Amino acid sequence: MTAKVSHWRKPPLIKTAALRYGIYAVALTYFVLTLATLPIDWERTAKGMEAAGRIFSGAFPPSFERSGLLFSGFMESLKIAILATAGGLITSVPLAFMAARNISPRPIYYLGRGIIILARSFHPVIVAIIFVKAVGFGPLAGALTLVVYSIGFVAKLLAERIEEIDFGQVEAMRAVGAPFLSTMVYAILPQIMPRLVGLGIYQLDSNLRASAVIGIVGAGGIGATLANAFGRYDYDFALAITMVIVGAILISEAFSGVIRKRMS
């Protein structure tokens, strides 16, 4: 006679079965209706697939004949990413202090959170279009775009880290009459410094990827070179640029991974 084996099952999020399956049915119905009502032109989609086939057939083999142009575009992207990361980190630190609930007065807290939310509200391509209109085509628009992009990410996570610090050090410095700035520098900054360095490494990697995207709308870098290649129907050169971007991202990912591992 074998003993009966019981298995633990994760309890469902919604306990009432009728309500749970009712929500599933509503979600499925909404998905089907959304798919059915979208204005998709299937005939045009089929023609687009033929055009995509011509692009891919014209892209092989990739052409590296204009390697000088490719190298200059990539170096411009790298410069944009480094400048934007440095500018983003410098701006994010005071914003993070402002947006930390445990150390900032309520009006300053709302102001800091509002700036961070505004920086996170728009996709980098939209911000790039605004800066291209404001300062013109080129790397300056790209660097300003990625500074905003960096603030939205770094300042938010850094503010959350400040809210999780050991507050005993802050209270000890306040008890001995330390001024506000000294308390920030000696009690809070050392606790968040490892997180700040980690975020900086990650953001540099992310900005390098984003610089290739925003260049398509005229914000400089390798993205602009890629857009020009597509505009001239140089699909083999475009594939070479894409391969270089992927290679650079892989190297950057490996490099940042090694640094983060050493820091941890």
From TrEMBL:
- Which ranges does the record mark as transmembrane? 21-40, 80-100, 121-152, 172-189, 210-231, 237-259
Q: Which residues form the signal peptide?
A: none
A GO cellular component annotated for this chain's UniProt record is: plasma membrane
Annotated InterPro entries: MetI-like, MetI-like_sf, PhnE/PtxC
Instruction: Drop me one GO molecular function for this one.
Output: ABC-type phosphonate transporter activity
Which keywords describe this protein according to UniProt?
Cell membrane, Membrane, Transmembrane, Transmembrane helix, Transport
* Subcellular localization, as worded in the UniProt entry: Cell membrane
Key word Ubl conjugation present in the record? no
Stretches assigned to the ABC transmembrane type-1 domain: 74-256
How does the entry describe its membrane topology?
Multi-pass membrane protein
Q: Which family does it belong to?
A: Belongs to the binding-protein-dependent transport system permease family.
What this protein is called in its record is Phosphonate ABC transporter, permease protein PhnE
Q: Which organism is it from?
A: Devosia litorisediminis
Q: Which gene encodes it?
A: phnE
